[in-house]
Amino acid sequence: MDWKPDVLSVFGRGIEKVDGIWQPTAYIERLSEKGGHPGMRAEGITPFDNDPRIVIAGGEVNALACAMLYKEFATQRSVPKVVVFAAGRPAYLADDPDPDLTEGRVMHRWFLGSVIPQPGTQIVFQANNRNTRDDFVETLEFAKSRGLSRIAIITVQVHIPRCQEFLKHVPEEMKHGIDILWFASEPIVLRHFPEAYPELWEAMISPAYARTAERERKGIEDLRAGHYNFGAQGYSFAQK
């Protein structure tokens, strides 16, 4: 690939406690009764369960894909100048006693388990982000403030269409001169670990995936209709 990223930005998809330790979410999760990340891994669930709250999450594959894509760029002598962990501290983490806890910091630990960044690569945590809108805006503003124009964004495949719709609603002045390339996590992980993640193949053709795709589709429709729920903050792109 001739395209060389300035910024490698990985979006979230949640973290959850496993035996009392925060980890990126597994590929599937069981949503809370309110429909958000529960913050605790549900044991014994499968993507084929007849449970409307079981959906695609993917924090773990996002973090691992970020590490593998960084390695691929490094092999091509296209090391990103900055790796941005865009996932911050959404509402479900608000009551955690650790003031430094963010999804991005937990994902960073997984990233470091697979790759050691080269000298000169800056690691950035966007701790204040609460949702995908924030991830976008803060990543764009960071890149523009540093004079960086090429951004590689990583997230799970089912999330990309809604992210692309978000981009359409970003004011032109925020994205002028910015070149974004999207990378789905699953193909990257499967390319490097075809036998370690066999559940990905099944999960991507499962009811949980279809259920998540439908949620994403409704999110796109809401964005286009102008009544997307950005959360308790009530953000719109124009407010930033």
Please give a structural write-up.
By secondary structure, this protein is of the alpha/beta class. It has one domain (about 5-240). It is about 35% helix and about 15% strand. The protein is built from 8 helices and 9 strands. It has helices spanning about 60-75, 105-110, 130-145, 160-170, 170-175, 185-190, 200-205, 205-225, and strands spanning about 5-10, 15-20, 20-25, 30, 55, 80-85, 120-125, 150-155, 180-185. Strand 6, helix 2 and strand 7 form a beta-alpha-beta unit. Helix 1 (about 60-75) packs across helix 2 (about 105-110), helix 1 (about 60-75) packs across helix 6 and helix 4 (about 160-170) packs parallel to helix 8. The protein starts with 6 loop residues before the first strand and ends in a 15-residue tail after the last helix. Residues about 230-240 have low confidence and may be disordered.
Features:
two-stranded antiparallel sheet, 240 residues, disordered C terminus
Major sheet: size, sense and barrel closure?
A: 5 strands, parallel
Uncertain segments are 232-240
Radius of gyration: 17 Å
- Assign an overall shape: globular
Tally of contiguous helical segments: 8
Major β-sheet strand ordering: 7-6-1-8-9
Number of strand elements: 9
Give the overall average pLDDT: 90
Q: Termini separation (Å)?
A: 34 Å
Number of domains: 1
Assembly type: single chain
Helix content: 25-40%
